[in-house]
Amino acid sequence: MTHQLQMRRAPLDLTAAFGLFSSELSDWRRLEKESSVLRFILLVAADGVKKGTQEGEALRGKDGHVVAHFWDSPECIKFFYKEKVPELGASQPNAVRLCQRFLNTYHFATLYDTYYRTAVYSAYIFQASNGGGRETRWFVEPQLVNPTWSSEMEDGYKLSQQNLDIYLGEKQALNEDYTNSGFDRGHLNPNGHHADPSRNATFTLTNVVPQNTKLNQNAWNKHESKLTSLFNANCHQAYVLVGAIPSSNNWIIKNNVKRVNIPEYIWNAYCCVDQNGRPILSGAATALNTELNVVVERSLDEMVNFFQQFSDAPVDELFSGQCRA
After folding, report:
1. 318 with 303: CB under 8 angstroms?
2. Which residues pair with 267 in a beta bridge?
3. Measured at the alpha carbon of residue 207, what is the angle toward residues 203 and 208, in degrees to the nearest 5?
4. What is the dihedral angle through the alpha carbons of 293, 288, 86, 251, rounded to the nearest 10 degrees?
5. Hey, how many other C-beta atoms are within 10 angstroms of the C-beta on 238?
6. End-to-end CA distance of the chain
7. Is residue 60 scored above 80 in pLDDT?
8. CA-to-CA distance for 91 and 300, rounded, in angstroms?
9. What is the mean pLDDT of the chain?
10. How far is CA 297 from CA 52, 210, 227, 233, 294, in A?
11. How confident is residue 104, by pLDDT bands cut at 50, 70 and 90?
């Protein structure tokens, strides 16, 4: 009898179990569906983050204007003879490397000091001028304001008007710093050593230093013109470095704030090569940034010795092999 009772109860238990199983199966399928949707959402989100990261890295990497090393870009390292970048100023904690980009093309390279808000040097390849008017705008470096901004130099005034709540001059000089300062906006890489549009690209404030007006418009201007004639007559290509040696404590001051260091010296150096890339001429020059208005011409070895007096560390060669034949 007990056996019969058990046999009668078995179908009831099986039905209940089946009902429970069906319910759990339905719940499982619902959860699996919800889980699949969640996994899909997460995958899409992760893919978006990955793409955003890649785009950000691309902007700050090879396509960027501010680079970790000049050799990061073949179009930037080419401004150095045999791709030799001088060690001069490279170890300074505030030094940044700018590949000067204008109209989607690199025109020269600048090692820039964001503390002094002046360049250590600009490196370029001389071009015969094709005339053209003088650029009326003064450009700034957007990526010194925000690494995600434009990878090209931009008109400082226009950029400031587009970003009224953002100060552009924390790490670079602005046009207003030079207004009524008593100093010229002195080009390091001179616009007269380029054809359009490279000559326009030299009008970036990261390529400018406070230069004594008399020096800028007289002795230094004559020296640049002398080099133009020399390069045109003798060089297949001329690789040039132009820089400034900062003063210990001489600044353009605005609203009681030290804004731009006034250099003690302006200098340049060049390596002239033939059609086979072999050195045939080299030289250098320095000028005290004062009313003295005198340019002193030097050899490259003399130039290294000159730099050594301002550096505790050994000064390396300025060009590969010091531009010796």
Report:
1. yes
2. 243, 286
3. 85
4. -120
5. 23
6. 117
7. no
8. 21
9. 85
10. 52, 21, 11, 19, 10
11. very high
